[in-house]
Amino acid sequence: MDILSPGQPKIYFRKVTRMDNEEISLDADMIRLLIAIDENKEIAQIADEVGMNVATLNATIAKLLKIKLIEPVAKEVPFLSKKFLEALKINLSKAIGPMAEFVIEDVADNMNFAVSKIPKDQSPELISNIAVEIPDEDIRIRFEKSMIELIKKDRT
């Protein structure tokens, strides 16, 4: 599994200060990635910043972890609430009828998420992907507007 697969949780790393005096050697990719590592930036963003492809990124992270110059940072991922998901189902039911629940499940599955485990930061993409399934343009626009308001409320 590579760490940039769609649907994977965001991964963060931080630099570690080694207390031993053991000599280590770093290649150019290791140095470039190590300089860019910031525990507040997820690894996909860092990979983009340094222009590193997935294979090189995976190999370089493995090397840095092995010599203990970086470590993963556990960040709690907030998921969409049951209340939000219920409101989504109700709004979509108004737009397309009884198929709403199936559409939500299909879209979540296509995004590689279980419906109960959709990260909050993916809600705009979820709504956009669901809206594509609404054939009537006026209804689609109303659905998107109502859901954007719910996203704003859910973030506060």
Explain what the structure shows:
The protein is mainly α and 156 residues long. The protein has 7 helices and 2 strands. It has helices spanning 28-36, 43-50, 54-66, 82-96, 100-110, 123-131, 137-155; strands at 12-15, 70-73. α1 (28-36) packs across α3, α4 (82-96) packs antiparallel against α7 and α6 packs antiparallel against α7 (137-155). The two termini are 34 Å apart. The model has no long low-confidence stretch (mean pLDDT 88).
**Strand share of the residues?**
5-15%
Query: What is the typical, i.e. mean, pLDDT?
Result: 88
Structural class based on helices, strands and sheet pairing: mainly alpha
**Structural domains: how many:** 2
Overall form:
elongated
Number of strands: 2
The secondary-structure element order is: EHHHEHHHH
Sheet with most strands: 2 strands, antiparallel
Distance between the termini: 34 Å
What order do the strands of the largest sheet run in, or round the barrel if closed? 1-2
Task: Please compute the radius of gyration using only Cα atoms.
Answer: 20 Å
- Approximate helicity band: 40-55%
The tally of helices reads: 7
| Poorly predicted regions | none
